[in-house]
Amino acid sequence: xxxxxxxxxxxxxxxxxxxxxxxxxxxxxxxxxxxxxxxxxxxxxxxxxxxxxxxxxxxxxxxxxxxxxxxxx
Length: 73
Prior knowledge:
alpha+beta
């Protein structure tokens, strides 16, 4: 999985854990918390469903590129 809608709103995005701190510079991005634990390599991005493509596409692209870099299961 690369990107999905977050139950809390916005996007749940899979990213390279080594790039997470850089991506967290965006005030809309936070570390994803699942069952009370911060998840390495997952961010929640507070972005509106009606966001313009130029605002949404960079996030989706990051998630897809990272997912494609992973070995197949």
